[in-house]
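Problem: given the chain below (100 residues), write out its structure.
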Amino acid sequence: MLQKETRYSICSVNYACLVLALTPHMNNSWQAVVLPLAHAHPVLFHALAALTLIHTARTDADRHRRGQHHIQQSIELLAREWASGGLRDDVALATTLALT
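Solution.
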């Protein structure tokens, strides 16, 4: 069984994909293309988790704080992977879009 935080994170990434979609749910390229990338690339996963946590925080200071933590993790990974030359272009683009 998945830990509570892991289950919440997976739900968060799914929610972020719905928020970012410009098309109806049926043709959601964020879920079809970006979601599998997020499962394989922590830099993108943290960006989507941050987006969701902050977007849904409202008055929940703890949720907002966790979102800020995911932003920090994503940016640190982004800088490290960019510097090493190991960051795929599609992952970099999706991460940057989610963080902005």
